[in-house]
Amino acid sequence: EEEEEEEVPVLTDEEMNKLGAKLVKAELMGNMDMVNKLKAQLEAARKAKDGQAQRVSSASMSRKSETKAPGAGEPNEEVVLFRTDHSGRAWPVNASSESLQPRGGRRKKQTIETHREGERVRYFQDDDNVDLKEMVKREKMGTAEDQNMLYSRMASKLMGKTDGDYHTLDDMFVSSAAQREHSGHDEERQRLRAIQEHRRLAGSMEKCPYCFDSPELSKHLIIAIGTKVYVCLPNCQSLAEGHCLIVPLQHHSAATALDEDIWTEIQMFRKALVKMFEDQDQDCVFLETHMNLKRRHHMIYECVPLPRELGDMAPIYFKKAIMESDEEWSMNKKLVDLSSKDIRRAVPKGLPYFSVDFGLQGGFAHVIENEHKFPHYFGKEIIGGMLDLEPRRWRKPIRENFDDQRKKVLQFSQWWKPFDCTRNDS
């Protein structure tokens, strides 16, 4: 028996999922012999996989202990660091061009030559090394936080050094800019920020429940898979029968930053869903909320079906709710009409927003001014009010058990099969 257990092949995640799907079908058909046989195969495959993982981890630990010399550090891992600006564009961070001077001790700051024969020749110590392209890149990469930090740092250093009315605040900045900073400190600050950003993004993508390669993804809820996008059902209690999600396969945060091919495929799934619900004499509403930009949540395009009479009234409900939401006085237009243009051409990149579309028609968008006053369940709350649902359905949704999720998937798959837009491509 032990030899037989050792000979069990190690299955991949995809093969394990197929085996699980066969098990579900056998349970639905009532074939208990097949159910017991598949359960045994699945259990043996899991044990084989766990055993292989333990062997690999123990082998890697022993290899590390053998290769690691006493007193030597761990091998360095080379990673290309990027910083992302407020518009979603990524810029590579250069390594420090000069070796950093050791900190500590009293060192007199070197003053660079700013004037020559009575004429100003430079303002900053790196003027000779920075071209126009680099200056534009720094300006685009800079944020309001960077400017505030610079201002507070310089003001704290120079506070009390004014000379009456003869030495103004502008003179402070000019004279401070002429003092040479320690070599490479600015580049080192950029590198440390890029490392923090890289770690934050890697951590969020590891735990992302919607990335297609993530182990956290509930693959049994997937209905259809396209080239760049897939359709799945929510793992919690749905707002209505047929509530589904259109999600990019890769980690994208907002529709405003999507490539053309991803956006086109989302619209393809959207048209298919509208046709499917029209066949059931229903309307549908599509929602997207893009908030907490620093956390970079995965983009979700939600589709919620509504009865025909409520679907006709939905634009009135959403328009009134958007006009009464958020700040009373806003910097941006309160209500953006999407009837003649999509969200990518209506809202600039890098801004938090909420958007709603009604079937294949246009809809509305709202640029969020104060995220503390705008709930992340704003769209669901409006639909819940229209359907007269309990508030916990959208505020704290309850996760459904596997049996309820399986019934939901089977029912939706039957509805979706005649309108599946991925079968034509294959």
Provide a descriptive summary of the structure in words.
This protein is an alpha+beta fold and 426 residues long. It contains 13 helices and twelve strands. The strands form three sheets. The chain has an eight-stranded antiparallel β-sheet with strand order 5-6-7-9-8-11-12-10, with helices on both faces. The longest helix has 36 residues, at 32-67. The model is unreliable at 1-6 and 67-74 (pLDDT under 50).
List the helices and strands and how they pair.
Blueprint: H1 2-6, H2 13-29, H3 32-67, E1 82-84, E2 90-92, E3 115-116, E4 119-120, H4 132-141, H5 144-158, H6 169-177, H7 185-206, E5 222-225, E6 229-232, E7 244-248, H8 260-279, E8 282-290, E9 301-307, H9 308-323, E10 336-337, H10 343-346, E11 353-358, E12 363-367, H11 378-387, H12 392-395, H13 402-416
Antiparallel strand pairs: 1-2, 3-4, 5-6, 6-7, 7-9, 8-9, 8-11, 10-12, 11-12
Helix pairs in contact: 2-3, 9-11
